[in-house]
Amino acid sequence: MNKVAIWMQALRPRTLPAAVGPIVLGQTLVAPDHFSWLTAILCLICALALQLAVNLANDLFDGLAGVDEHDRLGPTRALQAGLLSAGELRVGLMLMLGIAVATGLWLVIFGHWLLWVLGGLALLGVLGYSGGRRPYANLGLGEVAVWLFFGPVAVLGSLLAQQTPVYSEAIFAASLVGLPVAAILVVNNLRDRHTDARAGKLTLAVRLGPRATRWLFSILTLGPWLVSLPIGLAPWTWLAWGCIGLAALGLNVKLWRHDGSALNPVLGQTALYSLAMALWLGLGVGN
To answer: Transmembrane segments in this chain: where (predicted)?
Structure first.
């Protein structure tokens, strides 16, 4: 593999729909007289940079902690496989964080002061998942953090960046959109539960066991779909809602029937599902 291919593998771009969806939803909820294309684009760049930083941080910190070994079931990790050094991953991580900070500063300066708080929490979230003395992934809080950052923080942060009022419907949508994104991590941790347990990484899947973890996935994927029933919308929206439901059911069938490396395709598919749910919520709440 050449360096470009190695970096693309380490960055894991297939996870990016998870970052795009909440930002797009947030922008659809902005009041028309407050909307700025520049702010919207900067919100998206900041979110994508943070997502890529998370991917590099996990590769780096899990590799240094010995979580990733030769029997890893997921996509190849660059540090564990010797494709990139720890120093190279640190440089990549700092670059992604630098982009996030640069775009975030613009949003803070021209947005709401609360973005200082949300931005600081986002940086801590990137570094604290698998890094530091007590990574919060080891405490079984990874899914909660993903819901928080890809739900309320991303969506309501978009409103604050555009200086538009935060209203109850936006809070409702923000609470829902983070759930299928958290389901992506559920799949990841279900697949890796044996190697994580061996390394002392006590994720929620390790704590709950496979059956309860699969039920959690079903709740996180089917729950938002059921709650967003298209009452009062045009007839064609029922077709769209039904298609999203079929996609959720298909994901659940795969998750309940497969395990180990066979779950790898479900990760990207769940990320795409989270994007579809974000677009659906934007259609229902934003209009």
So the answer is: 34-54, 89-107, 113-132, 144-164, 170-191, 212-232, 238-256, 263-283
Overall CATH class of domain 3-286: mainly alpha
Are the C-beta atoms of residues 267 and 187 closer than 8 Å to each other?
A: yes
92-142 pLDDT tens trace = 999 999 999 999 999 998 888 889 999 899 988 888 887 777 888 888 899
How many Å from the N-terminal Cα to the C-terminal Cα in the chain? 47
Residues 6+ apart with CB under 8 A from 233: 284
What are the φ and ψ backbone dihedral angles of 264, each rounded to 5 degrees? Answer: -55, -45
Taking only the tens place, the pLDDT of each residue in 61-73 is 888 877 766 666 7
Q: CB under 8 Å to 258, separation ≥6 — which residues?
A: 266
Q: Where are the domains of the chain?
A: 3-286
**Rounded to two decimals, what is the model's pTM?**
0.92
What sections of 82-203 are H helices per DSSP? Answer: 86-110, 114-128, 142-148, 154-161, 168-191, 193-198
